[in-house]
Amino acid sequence: MKTTEFAIIGLGGVGGYFGFKLAQKYTADSAINVTFIAREKTYEIVKENGLTLLSEAHEDPIARPDQIFKTVAELGHTDVFVICVKEYDLENICNQLKDKIKNDTVILPLMNGVDIYERIRKIITNGIVLPSCVYVASHIKEKGIVEHKGNPGKIIAGKDPEHPEFDPQGIVDLFKNASIDIDYKEDSFPAIWSKYFFIASFGLVSARYNKSIGQVNEEEELHQRALAVMQEIQAIAVRKEIDLPEDIIEQTFQKAASFPFQTPTSLQLDVQSGKENTELELFAGAIIAYGKQLGIPVPETTDIYNEIKNGMLV
Ligand SMILES: NC(=O)C1=CN([C@@H]2O[C@H](COP(=O)(O)OP(=O)(O)OC[C@H]3O[C@@H](n4cnc5c(N)ncnc54)[C@H](OP(=O)(O)O)[C@@H]3O)[C@@H](O)[C@H]2O)C=CC1
Ligand SMILES: CC(C)(CO)C(=O)C(=O)O
């Protein structure tokens, strides 16, 4: 039987959650291999101790992959690459990956952002790229240790617009068999935009004030600022003819209310911990650029962007 080779690139909040589930399910299965790519201290710790996931939903907190490498270059034949890095590392990873991609290699980017597919396609022109978005509240506690809170993670993936004939059902089933909630759609872009609606608005306001998703939803001033950012994104989406529901704003506030009250956003954690690189450009920067390009004013997003840049963080 042919072995399916998975490579999970990046063992942070997202890779540490979904990679854990794949590795825990399949290490004893000789037909499916799961390889992790992690760098520096994460590599050392996971190689020595396995990957730890602290999660009420997972009794055994340790998963050991079949293999772990420090770089993509060390990988042999791989069928499915699951990219789980922050947006500022995407081009670097794609440049390393491009020689490993064959026509039937599948790339699943589990990241926030509406332009991830296009950015991958600028570098990797062959293979199958499944445009996706992801919901999960999980973050690095220490290198090699990821903490998951709240609802189980969820992936929404869609057809590669360049390869509508490709049938990914076999791969989708492997995720499902590892108890990963994954929805496969003809067109995942509306779901990707809906996620962006949520994470750009709540991410920016939560990062600016260091407040959880629940607090942003309930505190009047913060709620109004998130609403104003959503209205700006909505104007952009309408102009770009993205097929979003008319009540997307209401749905987004309802979605926020479904998270445990104290859930932080990944942008909040990165901005508030003073990380040198954050996804501020992916959220605010992209909205500002679309606004300029389409002649749509985006004053609230611009203000929050400048406030965060200038260190106004409470
Ligand atoms: N965390 C969450 O709850 C959610 C996050 N997202 C989105 O998912 C994406 C990933 O986020 P998240 O997992 O939180 O990010 P993290 O920062 O937690 O993890 C990214 C990981 O990628 C690793 N990495 C980067 N470059 C390389 C490389 N060249 N080789 C090996 N490893 C590499 C980093 O390594 P190192 O530690 O060494 O820097 C880090 O461990 C983002 O776009 C985010 O917005 C979406 C939904 C939920
Ligand atoms: C809000 C959350 C946790 C939802 O999945 C997220 O996407 C993020 O923090 O980036």
Which descriptors apply to this entry?
314 residues; Rossmann fold; N-(1-d-carboxylethyl)-l-norvaline Dehydrogenase, domain 2; 12 helices; 11 strands; 19% strand; globular; binds NADPH dihydro-nicotinamide-adenine-dinucleotide phosphate; binds ketopantoate
Task: Walk me through the structure.
- The protein contains twelve helices and eleven strands.
- The mean pLDDT is 96.
- The strands form two sheets. Strands 5-2-1-6-7-8 form a six-stranded parallel β-sheet. Strands 3, 4, 9, 10 and 11 form a five-stranded mixed β-sheet that branches.
- The longest helix is centred in the middle third of the chain and has 21 residues.
- The chain is globular and about 55 Å long.
- It has 314 residues and is an alpha/beta fold.
- Strand 3 and strand 4 form a beta hairpin.
- The relative contact order is 0.12.
- The protein is 44% helix and 19% strand.
- The protein folds into two domains: 184 residues, Rossmann fold; 119 residues, Orthogonal Bundle (N-(1-d-carboxylethyl)-l-norvaline Dehydrogenase, domain 2).
- It binds NADPH dihydro-nicotinamide-adenine-dinucleotide phosphate (NDP) and ketopantoate.
- This is 2-dehydropantoate 2-reductase.
- Keywords: NADP, Oxidoreductase, Pantothenate biosynthesis.
- One of its GO terms (biological process) is pantothenate biosynthetic process.
Helicity level, as a percent range? 40-55%
Strand content bin = 15-25%
Q: Tally the beta strands.
A: 11
CATH hierarchy, class of the largest domain: Alpha Beta
Structural class: alpha/beta
- Helix count equals 12
- Helix-strand string: EHEHEEEEHEHEEEHEHHHHHHH
The CATH topology of the largest domain turns out to be Rossmann fold
Main sheet? Answer: 6 strands, parallel
The spatial strand order of the largest sheet comes to 5-2-1-6-7-8
End-to-end separation: 57 Å
- How big is the Rg? 19 Å
GO molecular function, one term: 2-dehydropantoate 2-reductase activity
Organism: Pedobacter cryoconitis
Pathway: Cofactor biosynthesis; (R)-pantothenate biosynthesis; (R)-pantoate from 3-methyl-2-oxobutanoate: step 2/2
Pfam families: ApbA, ApbA_C
